[in-house]
Design goal:
With 1308 residues, the protein is an all-alpha fold. Helices cover 64% and strands 2% of the residues. It has 59 helices and nine strands. The N terminus and C terminus are likely disordered.
Length: 1308
């Protein structure tokens, strides 16, 4: 069995990794990338075997082999681990490799790669003495390895060399440490090939430098024993410049004097890159195994590069020489090998790019854009001659990138929001969505893999929810003015408070720019006008603005740009020169400069246009690179010559090709009358021969990274905006979700519909839930509605008949979809809009199937108690099933109303109208009307504390209860009253309007005569009135009426009636209190008006008590009389006007006395027992009330008539017959009371004898006339003869008269 292709020196490897002082985050990313790389390598080797690869090509099998499944599952989860590596069980990431090692189904190559993976994991200190279950993991490794058969293979030492050097990169700073001069020699043996490399540098004059080996390979051209691959010496390299415009090799002489340091690392990278370049130019020929031939050297080189990146980590970008090499030459090779037919090479390249992204993404903005556009997206979309394994490896790599926490944010912020870059994030989303949806009904692993990528994007957003709050400080430019968006920059790219608003603004402008691009590609003139209207170009076109638009805007038709620039119009000529001025040709060979220039547009066919364009180019090139060329004319002639040479060498119509000598001869004497150096012309000749200058895009080939496009990319990378680091915050997740949500929901829905495996179901459900969470967070209600509608379709509830319940239970997909629907409804119901209809349809269907919990579907009514009523209601309302559904819907409606109290203003009218229709249409007790009534009461009870503005409207709705049919009201009166009782006790302070209290007291009054409801009703009234806790001016009269009805009611016995009378009498204290408070707190006029209102309340109080005084029950009427007496006597604290007192005597006291006499004389004794005692109390009340109020009454003009009415009632009460005979008690009591009254009047000077000429004699005469009817002896008892004579004499002599008594008697 094959041995892993890993170094034998484990100690050196381990030391190399130990020396790397990674931070926690770097270490996590590095280890994850290492495992991911090894998984990719094993999968690539397995897929080369027909046994494993055919599985994918068929597309018919829904599941992978268990060995592949375990690897893919590991790859899927590796980047989501949040804890430290020491806390991760190593068996988790070792087991997939160990299974392959121990499997009898895997051959030597696969086992060897798996062993290599295990070896590498053990070599990088992922496992140490602190790792959990380390002992068990190592035991598993030992068991697996000892079961293999090994073959001893010669090992190369290049891996040890690379690891030893690059593991110490972090120890170097940017200052080199010189050592004695001497060339660096690297000896290497690759599969039997011995390569010795010594490097020197030769600098040419015209900005070009060529790097040659001082010592040639030995012998000359070396051939690999394994594959026969000739390895040529390192080719000449064009010196390119770093970001500051300086030569990256300007320190070349200095580097030659240094030993194992940065120069050594640069040399190694250059050597490895040269291996890739050499293989790129080798013809494949006709070989039995072209893939194996193609893999040999590049895998070796890529493996070393990957090891270097894993070890050096993020330290690379601190060293400009290494950074420049990776940015340019090395990355270009990655793009070329990213299109390899070998899955193993592809997997290695993608692993390297993932490593580069983790450690250097801030330095590789445009390089990453190019790699995704030209490689990953191109391969992953399939077709165009790419094989299925290529497509699958690319898709796996793309999904791996999507699983990185910051990747999609980085792509969106730095590329999609950059006007000069393509929309990589959108392209990724669209590709994943398209790849996840099968063209037919067959679902393969590729589709689920693409879906994993989409879900990974959404999952990242869910994890970032709550992060990324900013306080925007950026100053957005005025969109109504021209904005030079191709040159405008953010104030601070490191501060989210600045760059977030900046990139959002730029993204909006980019949409306008893309619309302008479409217009321009259709009609250039209209396109420019559109951009002017959008203020993206100035109102008056400027050459500089138009040239920037042509230079930096992707997607423009290059033919139209060429025609515009070549036009003879003066503005077009100015634009052409401004366009040429956007290029930086310093340090470039003429051919590369020409490639870069012609890459940005298509050279028109008209000779005059070509001349104008080349003149502008030549002028710009000579201006920046005047070393060899004598003048701009020389640059122009040589440019023409290169274009002709390009056509000659690469046109199929030209049979005889131009030779070197012919090319040199054609360019004699063009350099100001002199010849150009032969070496210079030969370099140009071979460059054109080897690499064609492409003048046109070739359909799909336009995605290819040509040398011209690469030069353009490197040139633009010097001017592009800095890479913005988002720190994995949700600054722009809302904008990104707007792009990804639609395709994701569509893809998940299709895969969920076609899937047949439980794990795929669960993946889809998790995706649905993640989309719902983000939708709710960022208020994408339409997305959430679409998702819910889609899920409801999968529940199959809406398509089931009543006999399909077993189908629902057995269908895993339907069951999971149903659970997901209600999970979303419970968690994010506030964000759901139109799709509630679908959710309710599902709920109703579950209800009909009897699958809902009992507490959701149970009826409030007792089935046995109301069975007869239910039958009658069913005849009116349809079948019992329909009524049951209606009841359930009503329950849901009420529950929704209660749970949406903040939206009650929107719901209430609909809810009220529905309940009204039920109440008014049903005349018999049934479950539906019961739910309607009690649901209405629950709504009022629950919402009154929170919706004061709707309190009156809610309480007004209770009038529906008053309108219930008598049979319905009687059936539910007790429950209704109990609910009212709860409502009053919990919300009395929130009922402030008279209308609201009127509804409440009306319902309580109804309960007064209901045997079952009276107790709860009186309890509510007692709660309101007891101690005046909730008795208010607005509800006083209403409560008095309700109390009177309870006092008159025989339900509950005499005790409740007595309590009701006490409540009425006790309310007098509230009237007194309100009077005092009004005098203190109000203005005089306002207080007077309020006291007048209080007087009316008092009058209604005594009128109510007067009515109860006629009650048949002796105890009740007697208690009412006493209560009335107390209210009359206790009114001193209320400022009652005189007219009210007179009204009280006439309408209350006298009327009550007359009613009692009538009852005594007319009504049966059996109905009104012991009326004698009541009459005694009544006449006592009259006497006490009159005497109590005598001081006030004597001042009114009608006092005489009032006094006569009092005397008349006393006379009647003394003579009344009780049970056919006069009452002895009354005969004895009335004269005594009258005598007492006369004595008081005498003492107060109201009743005195007058002269015969005085008007006061009227009162005197009237008094004694009526008193004599009662008892003639009272006069002598009250006034003695001496008093009468003395009073008479005083009157005759004009003594002092009692003015008050005189006026009153005169009036009488």
């Amino acid at each position: 069995m094959g041995c892993p292709n890993r170094p034998s020196g484990a100690r050196e490897v381990k030391e190399g990794y130990e020396d790397c002082s990674f931070t926690s985050s770097d270490k996590h990313a590095t280890f994850a990338c290492i495992i991911n790389s090894e998984v990719g390598a094993v999968l690539a080797v397995m897929r080369r075997n027909v046994r494993w690869g055919g599985h994918y090509l068929s597309g018919n099998d829904q599941r992978e082999h268990s060995l592949i499944q375990s690897l893919m599952a590991l790859r899927k989860q590796i980047f989501y681990w949040q804890h430290q590596w020491n806390d991760t069980d190593p068996r988790f990431y070792l087991q997939p490799f160990l299974d392959i090692i121990q499997s009898d189904e895997t051959g030597a190559p696969i086992t060897g790669v798996a062993l290599s993976a295990v070896y590498k994991i053990l070599s990088v200190d992922m496992i140490d003495q602190y790792t959990v279950n380390a002992e068990s993991a190592l035991q598993l490794v030992v068991d697996a390895v000892t079961s293999c058969r090994f073959e001893r293979i010669a090992r190369n030492t290049m891996h040890e060399l690379v690891r030893c050097i690059f593991s110490r990169l972090q120890d170097f700073d940017k200052t080199y440490h010189p050592v004695p001069s001497g060339a660096i020699t690297v000896k290497q043996e690759v599969g039997g090939v011995h390569i010795e490399d010594s490097t020197g540098r030769n600098q040419l004059e015209n900005g070009s430098s060529i790097s040659n080996y001082d010592g040639q390979l030995s012998p000359g051209t070396v051939t690999s024993d394994a594959a026969g691959v000739p390895v040529t010496p390192l080719p000449s390299k064009t010196v390119s410049r770093d970001d500051d415009g300086k030569d990256a090799t300007s320190s070349g002489l200095h580097m030659q004097k240094e030993h194992y340091g940065i120069p050594c690392m640069v040399e190694i990278f250059q050597f490895l890159s040269s291996l890739l370049t050499a293989v790129e130019h080798i013809g494949m020929g006709t070989r039995a195994n072209s893939i194996a031939f193609d893999e040999d050297v590049p895998i070796f080189a890529l493996g070393l590069i990957n090891s270097a990146l894993e070890l050096s980590g993020s330290s690379l970008h601190h060293h400009p020489s290494l950074l420049h090499l990776i940015r340019d030459e090395v990355f270009q090779n990655f793009i070329q090998f990213g299109l390899s037919m070998s899955p193993l090479v592809l997997s290695m390249v993608f692993s390297i790019i993932l490593n580069l992204y983790h450690h250097m993404h801030t330095e590789l903005k445009l390089q990453l854009e190019a790699f995704f556009s030209c490689v990953i997206l191109r391969l992953a979309q399939g077709g165009n001659g790419h094989s299925y394994p290529q497509e699958e490896v690319a898709m796996e790599a793309l999904v791996d990138f999507c699983r990185q926490k910051e990747f999609v944010i980085d792509m969106y912020v730095n590329l999609d929001c950059d006007v000069t870059c393509s929309n990589v994030f959108e392209d990724i989303v669209n590709l994943l969505s398209k790849s996840a949806i099968p063209e037919d009904s067959s679902l393969s692993s590729m589709h689920t893999l693409a879906l994993d990528g989409l879900i990974a994007v959404i999952k990242g957003m869910t994890e970032r929810i709550g992060s990324g709050s900013i306080n925007s400080k950026g100053t957005l430019l005025n969109s109504e003015e021209h904005t030079p968006i191709w040159t405008v920059r953010c104030d601070d790219y490191s501060d989210p408070n600045h760059w977030v608003s900046f990139v959002q603004w730029r993204k909006l402008l980019k949409k306008s720019v893309m619309a302008g691009v479409d217009q321009f590609n259709t009609n250039p003139k209209k396109g420019l006008e559109f951009l002017q209207q959008a203020h993206l170009l100035p109102d008056k076109l400027e050459p500089q603005s138009v040239s920037c638009f042509f230079r930096y805007t992707p997607g423009l038709d290059k033919n139209l740009i060429g025609d515009f620039l070549g036009n003879h119009d003066q503005f077009c000529i100015q634009t052409l020169h401004a366009f040429a001025g956007t290029f930086d040709f310093r340090g470039m060979n003429l051919d590369n400069a020409l490639r870069l220039f012609l890459e940005t547009f298509r050279l028109p066919g008209e000779s005059q246009k070509i001349q104008r364009i080349l003149e502008a180019f030549s002028e710009r090139y000579y201006e920046q690179s005047p070393q060899i060329l004598a003048n701009k004319d020389a640059a122009l002639l040589l440019s023409y010559s290169l274009i002709l040479l390009n056509t000659d060498q690469h046109s199929s119509q030209v049979k005889r090709k131009m030779t070197e000598n012919e090319f040199i001869r054609n360019n004699r004497l063009i350099n100001g009358g002199n010849d150009l150096p032969r070496e210079y012309l030969l370099d140009l000749y071979h460059s054109i021969c080897n690499k064609e200058i492409c003048f046109t895009d070739k359909g799909a080939a336009s995605m290819e990274m040509t040398s011209s496009r690469w030069l353009d990319l490197i040139d633009k990378s010097k001017k592009t905006d800095p890479f913005i680091v988002s720190d994995c915050k949700a600054y722009l997740d809302r904008d990104m979700f707007a792009i990804v949500s639609g395709p994701t929901v569509a893809a998940i829905s299709v895969v969920f519909e076609l899937a047949e495996e439980d794990d795929v179901y669960q993946t889809c459900i998790n995706g649905f839930l993640d989309v719902a969470k983000v939708s709710a967070c960022y208020h994408f209600e339409d997305v959430l509605d679409d998702l819910v509608v889609s899920l409801c379709g999968f529940t199959i509830l809406l398509n089931l008949s009543s006999f399909d319940e077993p189908v629902l239970g057995e269908d895993m997909k339907a069951r999971m979809a149903t659970e997901a629907v209600f999970t979303i409804a419970n968690r994010y119901g506030d964000s759901i809009r139109a799709s509630w209809r679908n959710i309710l349809d599902c709920i109703l269907r579950l209800h009909k199937l009897g699958l809902l919990p009992a507490h959701m579907a149970s009826d409030a009514a007792d089935e046995s108690e109301h069975s007869a009523n239910a039958e009658q209601a069913a005849k009116q309302n349809g079948s019992p099933e329909d009524e049951d559904t209606a009841v359930f819907c009503l329950e849901l409606l009420i529950a929704i109303t209660l749970n949406n109290r903040d939206r009650i203003g929107l719901l209430w009218q609909c809810v009220y109208e529905h309940i009204t229709s039920i109440v008014q249409s049903i005349v018999m007790p049934c479950a539906l009307v019961e739910k309607a009534v009690f649901g209405l009461l629950r709504i009022c009870q629950r919402l009154l504390p929170y919706k004061e503005d709707l309190a009156d409207e809610l309480l007004r709705s209770l009038q529906l209860v008053l309108k219930l049919d008598a049979r319905v009201a009687d059936a539910y009166c007790e429950q209704i009253t109990q609910e009212i009782n709860c409502l009053v006790k919990s919300n009395a302070v929130h009922i402030r309007s008279q209308m609201g209290w009127r509804v409440i007291t009306s319902l309580l009054s109804i309960s007064a005569r209901h045997p079952e409801a009276a107790e709860a009703g009186f309890d509510s009234l007692f709660f309101i009135m007891s101690g005046g806790a909730h008795l208010l001016p607005v509800n006083y009269l209403l409560c008095m009426d309700a109390s009177r009805q309870f006092a008159e009611s025989r339900v509950g016995g005499a005790e409740r009636s007595l309590l009701a009378l006490d409540l009425m009498a006790g309310s007098l204290d509230c009237l007194v209190q309100w009077t005092h408070e009004a005098k203190k707190a109000m203005e005089e006029q306002d207080a007077a008006r309020f006291c007048q209102d209080i007087g009316e309340m008092w009058l209604r109080l005594v009128q109510g008590l007067k009515r109860v005084c006629s009650d048949q029950r002796e105890e009740i009427r007697n208690h009412a009389l006493l209560s009335l007496q107390n209210c009359l006597i206790g009114a001193d604290g209320i400022d009652l006007p005189h007219y009210l007192w007179l009204q009280c005597f006439n309408s209350v006291i006298f009327s009550m006395l007359d009613d009692l006499i009538e009852i005594t004389q007319v009504r049966s004794y059996k109905d009104y027992r012991n009326m004698e005692g009541t009459l005694i109390l009544a006449v006592k009340l009259l006497s006490k009330a009159f005497l109590q109020l005598l001081h006030w009454l004597s001042r009114v003009e009608t006092f005489g008539q009032l006094w006569v009415d009092v005397l008349t009632r006393m006379d009647k009460y003394m003579k009344v017959k009780v049970r056919g005979k006069k009452s002895e008690k009354l005969l004895e009591l009335v004269p005594e009371l009258l005598k007492n009254t006369l004595l008081v009047m005498k003492a107060r000077g109201i009743l005195t004898p007058r002269s015969s000429t005085s008007q006061g004699d009227v009162l005197w005469e009237v008094t004694w006339t009526n008193v004599n009817n009662v008892d003639p002896s009272l006069r002598s008892e009250v006034f003695s003869d001496q008093e009468l004579e003395q009073q008479s004499q005083q009157a005759e002599s004009g003594a002092d008269s009692i003015s008050n008594g005189t006026s009153v008697s005169t009036s009488g």
